[in-house]
Write a structure and sequence with these properties.
Layout: H1 6-9, E1 15-17, E2 23-29, E3 38-44, E4 49-52, E5 58-65, E6 67-72, E7 78-82, E8 86-88, E9 95-99, E10 103-110
Antiparallel strand pairs: 1-2, 2-3, 3-10, 4-9, 5-8, 5-10, 6-7, 6-9
The structure holds (2~{S})-4-acetamido-2-azanyl-butanoic acid (9YT).
(2~{S})-4-acetamido-2-azanyl-butanoic acid is lined by residues 23, 25, 40, 42, 44, 52, 59, 61, 97, 105, 107.
């Protein structure tokens, strides 16, 4: 079992600030933990706009604080985001997140991030090399 408090990872290698300056991501679980996904506590800063395109990953995001909006650049649809709203990028959609206030987002990535990935020019993360046991669940173990 893994038990980890946010306070334990602040200021460590798992505490990643975007070069673009719009978010900080605290990575509570990474690929090496062997869960098959990574699990992050992310804050998107008030007044910012972040353009993303996770072409190599699936991401689900659950907002637990703040207010903003999500624009789906594939359809043009704009969705309000606030505490209790989830979105899942099941189609690798290009999107923009606008934060009116600080948005605290709990994020899950599949395949899992491995460490200190930051967005490239397209707002994507690189596809990691597959780990030997990634995603394998052995019920007999
Ligand atoms: C909501 C979102 O995608 N924010 C960008 C940072 C990313 N979630 C991460 O690496 O935690």
């Amino acid at each position: 079992m893994i038990v980890r408090a946010l306070s334990e990872i602040l200021g460590t290698e798992r505490d990643v600030a975007a070069r673009g300056g719009t978010w900080v991501s605290r990575r509570l679980l990474l690929r090496d933990e062997g869960m098959g996904f990574s699990f992050h506590d992310t804050t998107i800063f008030a007044g910012t706009e972040t353009r993303m395109w996770y072409r190599h990953h699936l991401e689900a995001v659950y907002c637990v604080a703040g207010e903003g909006e999500l624009e789906d650049l594939e359809t043009g649809a704009v969705h309000p985001i606030s505490d209790g709203t989830m979105y899942a990028l099941d189609g690798h959609e290009r999107h923009i997140l606008r934060a009116r206030t600080d948005l605290r987002m709990i994020c899950v990535f599949n395949p899992p991030l491995t460490g200190r990935e930051d967005h490239d020019a397209d707002g994507a993360y690189p596809l990691p090399e597959p780990a030997p046991t990634e995603g394998v669940c052995d019920a007999s173990a």
